[in-house]
Specification:
single chain; 158 residues; alpha+beta; Arc Repressor Mutant, subunit A; Alpha-Beta Plaits; 2 domains; 34% helix; 19% strand; globular
Length: 158
């Protein structure tokens, strides 16, 4: 369930590391070597920090971001209005679907948001329908209309 991290949980080096990782890293034999030089941390320190950041929940995963649409598939942002007493059970059902990339709880009528990523665009509706049937709740679909590249503001229409 959602948790709030203490304001002092991340130091300046943690914040710098997270910010640099958002921009991506090269897939090389030593992927943290370039980061090491710019952040002033050893590669072992970077690895240890990543493990700690994951343990405390500051990051939920560390891995590649694959553009499903560029590979012929599709992604879709989805939302559900889940009764508060059912939130944990519904999150478990949603997370059981292999198409669910990640999800977020929000303090809003639409309190569960998640992303579906499928190999074929037509599979989005089927996955959403299956989640709706399993939970007994409506799944709202918010398909991406355009991308804005982080940092550049560059638009990509879909």
């Amino acid at each position: 369930m959602p948790r709030t991290m203490p304001s002092d949980a991340l130091d300046a080096a943690d914040r710098s590391l997270i910010e640099r990782l958002r921009d991506g890293i090269a897939i090389t034999e030593a992927p943290f070597a370039a980061l090491s030089a710019t952040l002033g941390l050893t590669e072992d320190e970077i690895t240890a920090r990543l493990a700690r950041l994951r343990e405390i929940g500051a990051i939920t995963r560390f891995g590649p971001f694959l553009d499903a649409a560029a590979m012929g598939g599709a992604c879709c942002l989805c939302a559900m209005a889940v009764p508060p007493g059912r939130l944990e059970a519904v999150v478990t059902l949603v997370n059981a679907r292999p198409e669910v990339v990640h999800n977020h709880h929000r303090n809003h009528r639409l309190n569960l948001w998640f992303v579906l990523a499928c190999e074929r665009p037509g599979d989005i509706a089927a996955a959403a329908r299956a989640i709706g049937e399993k939970t007994g709740l409506e799944v709202l679909l918010f398909p991406k209309e355009e991308d804005f590249s982080r940092g550049t503001g560059e638009r990509h229409d879909h």
